[in-house]
Each structure stands twice: as C-alpha cells, then as structure tokens.
Amino acid sequence: MYVHVNAATSADGKLSTRERRQVRISGDEDFARVDRLRAEYDGVLVGVGTVVADDPSLVRHDEAHRVAERGPDPTPPARVVADTRLRTPADAAILEGDPVTYLLHGETASAERRETLSAAGATLVPAGSGNDRVEFPAAFDALETHGVESLLVEGGGEVIFSLFEHDLVDRLSVFVGGTVIGGRQAPTLVDGRGFVDGFPELELEGVERLDEGVVLTWAVR
Ligand SMILES: NC(=O)C1=CN([C@@H]2O[C@H](COP(=O)(O)OP(=O)(O)OC[C@H]3O[C@@H](n4cnc5c(N)ncnc54)[C@H](O)[C@@H]3O)[C@@H](O)[C@H]2O)C=CC1
Ligand SMILES: Nc1nc(O)c(N)c(N[C@@H]2O[C@H](COP(=O)(O)O)[C@@H](O)[C@H]2O)n1
What we know:
By secondary structure, the chain is an alpha/beta fold. It has six helices and nine strands. It has helices spanning 28-39, 48-54, 63-70, 111-119, 136-145, 157-165, and strands at 2-9, 43-47, 78-82, 101-105, 123-126, 150-155, 171-176, 202-210, 213-220.
C-alpha cells in the first residue's frame, strides 16, 4: 500500500480546536490542491474521530485530473474509515451515495453495529485482534484485495501517529496556514503516545506558497 498523509495545520501545529471542532485552515487554493491529490489515489482514509467530529463526505475531488491520470470513466476514490468498534453514525455523510465506503474494524465491534452499518451501505473490513486499534498492516492487505493500493490519509492525529508507528507512511504533506488555534488539548498533526526514540526521518521534497500559508512536502526515509 502506498500511503500519502496530507492535512492542514494552524501555524502552531493544531488540526482543530480543543473541543475538536473543525476549523477552516486552508483557503481555496489549498482545497483545490487537496482535490487534485484525492484524484490521484485509490482511496481517502480518515479515523472515526474525524468522522464523528467533522462528518466529512470525502466525495469531492478533481474529476478532470482523475480522468487525465486514469483515462475515461474512472471509478472515484473509495472512502475508508479506521473504526475499531464501528462508531460511525448510520446517517454519517461518509455513507451517503457513491463511492464505496470501507469501514476497517476490530473484533470488538458488536454484531448489532455490523448489521446496522452494513444496512447503511458500508463495506465492512475486519482488521484487528482484541485491542482497541485497527491493525493497519492487516487492514491494508485486506484493502488491496478490494483493489485499493494507494491511500491519501487526511487525519486525524491519532491515526497519523499509528501509521508512522508502523512505518507505513511514504509521503507527508502539510498545509501550514496563517491562523493560531492553541490549546494543549487541541489535536496536533501527530498525536497518539508519541515517539521517545526512533523518530521518523523526513526528506524535504517541496515548499509551495498557497493562500496565506505554505505547503511542505516530505518523503519518509
Ligand atoms: N485540519 C485537518 O486537516 C484535519 C483535522 N482533523 C481534526 O482532527 C480531529 C480528529 O482527530 P483524532 O481525534 O485524532 O481522531 P482520528 O480521526 O485520528 O480517529 C481516531 C480514532 O480512530 C480509531 N482507530 C482505529 N484504529 C486506529 C489506529 N490503528 N490508530 C489510531 N486510531 C484508530 C479509534 O477509535 C480512534 O479513537 C477532529 O477535531 C478533526 O476536526 C481531522 C482531519 C484533518
Ligand atoms: N485540507 C484541509 N484543510 C482544512 O482547512 C480542513 N479543515 C481540512 N479538514 C478535513 O477535510 C476533510 C473534509 O472533507 P470534505 O468536506 O468531506 O470534502 C475532513 O477530513 C476534514 O477534517 N482539510
């Protein structure tokens, strides 16, 4: 699985407020860049924390760019949620209409949630033992059997940490915008329990000025 993590942070490195309320950090130019990125990947992944906080649909992408990349009538990027206990609400925007939505879940997801979310249109992908985290290596193997071989990961900070922890990130891009959010409880780009050693090493590939901020792109060594 090829994994590109992309997110927007405030100038002080926050993804959203301490109440986990979504903030528009990007401007129009950066949203257009994200739409092009989405068009380049087989799927777009977020954690269930982002689904609960933001209710994203993850449908929007640059269709002309996808046609240019993949030829006529390409399938749109699949939607993927890391959702151990299947907490995604049955009326979440991410389950509405097309394209397919894969919910990666653990053994702890109840039969009732499995039935409810299958009935709501989700495709369930079992990927985890008894712990409270989807096991990404196994989950990605399972996604590949569905034809998803590349992912744009949009957040949040818990999921991004897990991916770095398992050495699964190939590229990282961050739009750093001209706003300050603050708050020690506010989510940052990489949360989780953090590294104490073995810090992932990044190689700077690009710096681009957009809107009132800058996009930094790194390859992960
Ligand atoms: N500015 C931006 O670009 C973005 C901002 N956000 C913000 O981030 C916040 C949500 O981020 P988080 O709370 O960190 O939630 P998250 O979106 O990273 O989801 C974390 C949840 O995913 C589930 N999960 C399953 N397997 C997991 C694994 N292996 N590792 C980690 N989690 C796993 C767990 O239930 C966990 O609580 C929201 O406030 C949202 O607004 C989210 C995406 C992009
Ligand atoms: N790139 C970016 N810039 C911002 O300013 C943001 N607030 C976000 N948030 C994430 O974008 C996703 C929403 O997607 P749709 O509206 O469904 O297309 C979701 O993952 C947000 O957390 N991203």
